[in-house]
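To the wet lab folks,

You asked to see what we're planning to order before we commit. Fair enough. Below is the target structure as tokens, and below that is the sequence we designed to fit it. If anything looks off to you, flag it before the synthesis order goes out.
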């Protein structure tokens, strides 16, 4: 079971406030207050569903009397026309929450769908597909959750939970050895230290300095294989940098342990999902 973020209440509250403002003017002026309706949320494309608990939270905040019957579970694969859920209650409430609910489930399902595709492309290798910090500000926990729904794994959540020495850190600190030594002398022993390497020379230096993880940046598959051989299974190897669906299989076949893909979150297209409403007699 994929752990769902516990902090969505405030995220949903802000999204609703942004959309509704002082009130849903169109709905309030055109829909009778007592009208009851049922809405069906349907997929209009193939993909992986993620974000159904957010739909429930949206309608809980809009109107606690609204009821939702889910036809699918998180991580299920859907095709065109498949129903995700049916939502019943006051028509005004269903319409007011429609766009925010759809925005969340389309975005998260798109991320899960893209992640699942990458995971399929590396099947049979040792490589894990992981995300990055290239997320929508304020939505990181949800977007990283969607990566897990799609079968991927999470990289660090923020600047606070791991040491990742990148090219600019290396430049500012006086080199890989100095940067790693500074980190080792001050970080808790439980903290992993990752060093970004752009060449085999840097790989050797990072290994000698005591890095735990080598982030192999923008290396072609043959160079990655050489770096993996140098690591000799003593440290974790991670490929990163501009990885696409066209290149990920060859990269995985180089023997790296991890492949980090920013596109899982920064470039995932939303899954096309609609909400169709019917008035109840």
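Sequence we intend to order:
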């Amino acid at each position: 079971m994929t752990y769902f973020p516990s902090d969505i209440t405030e995220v949903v509250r802000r999204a609703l406030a942004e959309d509704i403002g002082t009130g849903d003017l169109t709905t309030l002026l055109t829909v009778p207050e007592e009208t009851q309706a049922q809405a069906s949320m349907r997929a209009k494309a193939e993909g992986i569903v993620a974000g159904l608990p957010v739909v429930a939270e949206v309608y809980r905040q809009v109107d606690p009397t609204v009821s939702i019957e889910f036809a699918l579970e998180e991580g299920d694969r859907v095709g065109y026309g498949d129903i995700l859920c049916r939502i019943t209650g006051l028509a005004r409430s269903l319409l007011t929450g429609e766009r925010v609910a759809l925005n969340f489930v389309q975005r998260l399902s798109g991320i899960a769908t893209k992640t699942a595709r990458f995971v399929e492309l590396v099947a049979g290798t040792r490589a894990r597909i992981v995300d990055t910090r290239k997320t929508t500000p304020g939505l990181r926990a949800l977007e990283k959750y969607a990566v897990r729904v799609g079968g991927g794994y999470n990289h660090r959540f923020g600047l606070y939970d791991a040491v990742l020495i990148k090219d600019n850190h290396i430049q500012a600190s006086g080199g890989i050895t100095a940067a790693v030594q500074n980190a080792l002398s001050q970080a808790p022993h439980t903290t992993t230290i990752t060093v970004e390497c752009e060449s085999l020379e840097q790989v050797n230096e990072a290994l000698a300095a005591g890095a735990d993880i080598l982030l192999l940046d923008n290396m072609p598959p043959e160079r990655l294989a050489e770096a993996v051989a140098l690591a000799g299974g003593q440290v974790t190897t991670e490929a990163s940098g501009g990885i696409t669906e066209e290149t990920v299989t060859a990269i995985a076949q180089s023997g790296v342990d991890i492949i980090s893909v920013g596109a899982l979150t920064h470039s995932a297209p939303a899954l096309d999902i609609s909400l169709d409403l019917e008035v109840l007699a």
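Structural context that might help your review: The domain at 8-119+268-279 is CATH 3.90.1170.20 (Aldehyde Oxidoreductase; domain 3). The chain has two domains: 8-119+268-279, 123-266.

Thanks,
Computational group
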